[in-house]
Design goal:
The longest helix has 18 residues. The protein has 592 residues and is of the alpha+beta class. Strands 4-5-6-7-8-9-10-11 form an 8-stranded parallel beta barrel, surrounded by 6 helices. A 6-stranded antiparallel β-sheet has the order 16-25-17-22-19-20, covered by helices on one side. A 5-stranded antiparallel β-sheet has the order 15-26-33-29-30.
């Protein structure tokens, strides 16, 4: 039977061990990639893998659980164990991780005035229901049961959000009642305010820090915090940031390989670390998070390359070899090996097969939902993707104004199917002028709204803006309009199959473009989106993620698993009125 204890050092099977770990998120890659990524972590000289577990992908609809394909955390753990790696799990209700809503499911927002990450009974009931399904399935993988899992996280960077220790205690109790008996921990920044607020050190819960440089200074703070509470625990950085995430319209963040290696070496000399990220992967689908800055939420890009030790597709980088070298310098007895390398291919350029305007096929793919006032996305559907609102205004035959009140995140407004305005968060609520139309017919307004991703960190988790869609209403002249028809567009495989391409196309409107490439081989590849506007790409029904002409990324990574030899069906949903004529598979990322 294996054993793992936290004393003055980490003790594995009776002997001291330094944890050298790397973060690999099973949900950000295809299952076929897990083995190579885990092997490369082992070959680096690591002995542990760490992963978050996002609530929203495992309980997408309340009471309905999904652990299939890339969501199969259990097979990921088993693969890690096969390769001789220990496992750290972070299944907390909130994970941050630059992931949509910090991993919390959107359906929570249908509970009026719920206070997330607190002892609000309604929130804790949902956490308990989720943990009651998840944790008993994880329990057999604990080291106490002969498995590889050595630690689990109670909450993530809670000191950067709240200070309600009773919430942490209730979460701990739920976990233990579900059969979790390995050591539990918290992870926070390394300054006293957040350590005081976010830890349960007074309850003997292990404390770790998150940082990416100045290892000696940060661990000194961590050590002093422990000493004030009479603890002599090992020092561990649970997130040693080796790169950073990216947002649309901003420069890509890079970190020098030797600079990272120096800081990693300094950290290993004083304690243990978990490289965040070792392999970043991809925010497939609508799963990218968003940064909260002032009154604006800044959505993050689809790629989660993170400038990590492995690239988005899993190729070792200069950082990999630099960190591998310093691990050997500090820990000369570790096993290391040459990493496995990846090959990406340019699979050719293909012409568009068919196209249709959203306005001409929306009734084929989505149900009409009528209401007096507009519905939020969480009321109309699962809360992700897009929603199209339609309303008919009486024509007073003079210039008038329209205002969309309290909506998130980005809207296109159409008058008689011609776009008249695009508004983002800081513009929504401003006047939209409707020119005089000297006709008897009503003014037909359509509003296409996109949820660009809920915030994953900070003060806005409980803000009204995280409920997507139109929350306030639509004002015509100076009154709120009544009478809405809405079409919820999650754009899942079922909706995509219902698109009627025999209907009329109009590239100036939001449009679906279909491609049917015949392939003689498949390989990891990238789709060049540099000529496109903004939208989403679907590969054989799988949502690959968002693209946007703002950059800095101008391509989407496409794992070979999503393609097939023979005929493929690829759909591009373009919202900016850009004519799309071809689909080009290239062998490396494209940037702007």
């Amino acid at each position: 039977m294996k054993t793992f204890e936290i004393k003055e050092e980490f003790i594995l099977n009776g002997s001291p061990v330094k944890l050298i770990s790397g973060a690999i998120h099973y949900f950000r890659m295809m299952p076929s990639q897990w083995e190579d990524s885990l092997y490369n972590l082992k070959a680096l000289g690591a002995n542990t893998v760490e992963t978050y577990i996002p609530w929203n992908i495992h309980e997408p609809v309340e009471g309905q659980f999904d652990f299939e394909n890339e969501k199969n955390i259990f097979k990921f753990i088993e693969k890690a164990e096969e390769l001789g790696l220990l496992v750290i799990l972070r299944p907390s209700a909130y994970i941050c991780a630059e992931w949509e809503f910090g991993g919390m499911p959107a359906w929570l927002l249908n509970i009026p005035n719920i206070r997330l990450r607190s002892t609000d009974n309604r929130f804790m009931e949902k956490v308990e229901n989720y943990f009651g399904h998840l944790l008993p399935k994880l329990a057999p993988y604990q080291v106490t049961e002969g498995g590889p899992v050595i630690m689990m996280q109670i909450e993530n960077e809670y000191g950067s959000y709240g200070m309600e220790k009773e919430y942490l205690r209730q979460t701990k109790t739920i976990m233990q009642n579900c059969g979790i008996d390995v050591p539990l921990f918290t992870a926070d920044g390394t300054w006293n305010e957040v350590l005081d607020s976010g830890s349960l050190i007074e309850d003997d819960i292990f404390v770790t820090g998150n940082f990416g440089s100045k290892s000696k200074e940060n661990t000194d703070v961590l050590k002093a915090f422990m000493e004030r509470h009479n603890k002599k625990w090992p020092l561990m950085c649970m997130e040693f940031w080796d790169g950073w995430f990216n947002r649309w319209g901003e420069d890509i963040v890079r970190r020098d390989a030797e600079d990272l290696a120096r800081d990693v070496k300094e950290m290993l000399e004083v304690g243990s670390l978990n490289l965040y990220m070792f392999h970043g992967g991809t925010n497939f689908g609508f799963n990218n998070g968003s940064s909260a800055r002032g009154t604006t939420d800044l959505p993050q890009v689809t790629s989660y390359d993170y400038d990590a030790l492995l690239t988005e597709e899993g190729q070792p980088t200069e950082k990999y070899y630099a960190v591998q070298r310093v691990i050997k310098e500090v820990c000369p007895d570790v096993w290391q090996a040459e990493p496995r390398c990846k090959t990406t291919k340019a699979l050719g350029e293909y012409p568009v097969t068919a196209a249709v305007s959203l306005f001409n096929t929306v009734t084929d793919i989505a149900n009409s939902i009528k209401s007096a006032y507009p519905l939020r996305m969480e009321e109309a559907g699962s809360g992700y993707g897009y929603i199209l609102y339609k309303l008919a205004l009486k024509n007073y035959r003079r210039e008038n104004r329209l205002r969309v009140i309290e909506a998130s995140d980005r809207i296109h407004v159409y008058l008689n199917e011609e776009k008249i305005k695009t508004q983002t968060q800081h513009e929504i609520g401003e006047d939209i002028l409707l020119e005089e139309i000297n006709e008897d017919a009503n003014l037909n307004i359509a509003i296409l709204l996109e949820n660009q991703g809920r915030v994953n960190y900070g003060h806005k988790l409980n803000a009204p803006t995280q409920s997507k869609g139109i929350r306030g209403g639509v004002m015509y002249d100076i009154h709120f309009h009544q009478g809405f028809e809405q079409f919820y567009l999650e754009l899942d495989a079922e909706q995509l199959n219902l698109i009627d391409y025999t209907k009329e196309s109009d590239y100036t409107a939001p449009s679906f473009y279909k491609f049917t490439p015949e392939m003689t081989e498949v390989a990891d590849t990238y789709i060049d989106c540099s000529k496109y506007g903004k939208g989403v790409i679907f590969i054989n029904g799988f949502n690959l993620g968002r693209y946007w002409e703002r950059g800095p990324h101008a391509s989407l990574y496409c794992p070979k698993d999503l393609l097939k030899v023979g005929k493929n069906e690829i759909v591009v949903f373009e919202t900016e009125g850009v004519l799309i004529e071809d689909l080009n598979f290239v062998d490396k990322p494209v940037y702007k």
